[in-house]
Request: fold
Amino acid sequence: MFTQTFWTVMAASSLACVVTTIGIVAISRRGRWARERSPYFMSFAAGVLISVSFMHIIPKSFEMNDRAPAFLLVGFLGIYLTNRLLRLYVCHERECEPVDTTFGIIPMVGIGLHSLIDGVIYAVTFNVSVLTGVLAAIGMVLHEFPEGIVTFVLLERGGFKRRRATLYAFLAAAISTPLGTLVSYPFINTIERTTLGLLLAISAGALVYVGASHLLPEVEKENGRYTILALAAGVLVAVGIVLSKG
Reply:
């Protein structure tokens, strides 16, 4: 029997799928418009993710399990090491000519795994509380738009035609998020509170990495005039929601 929480989680992860798809379609049809605005989405999302993690998700995980700090580190380093390994095989942020489609496929697989984990994070955070899930979802959904753009660009640089790059980007970066939620939810819904606290800590570590070590450096490279305002807006939104809920 499906609970209300299940449908709420699926709605959030499906929204992430939709936003990613919008990013893919935007870059495939209106590349200049999408590239010009993606730094603001990334900056706002970073502000939300970092603020939510430090003000709500991390304290909540510490409250649920005394060993949560160690798993917070595991989550952060796990995402870092995964990205580092992927970069060994990807021509990352350099002007270079890919020699074959491997340069598109490898990052597509990595992004697909990342999006699958995003779906698991939705399941974990919403099962802790609706507030925790909503706070995490705000930042995560907003960072899906530039993620869709990045996935398409990497595939296109890898030699894929526009139509095929669009399809593969959708499968890897968009639909994998609700799939991750659907697969993980039945298991997460039955685990003990202390174990859920550890999973929440891992999720928080991943969110901090995405916000501070992935999104913000990308924003700085773009050097957008108003990105700092978008970051501040993200922080204010997250802080306002947390404080309003006590």
Residues 91-100 have pLDDT under 50 and may be disordered.
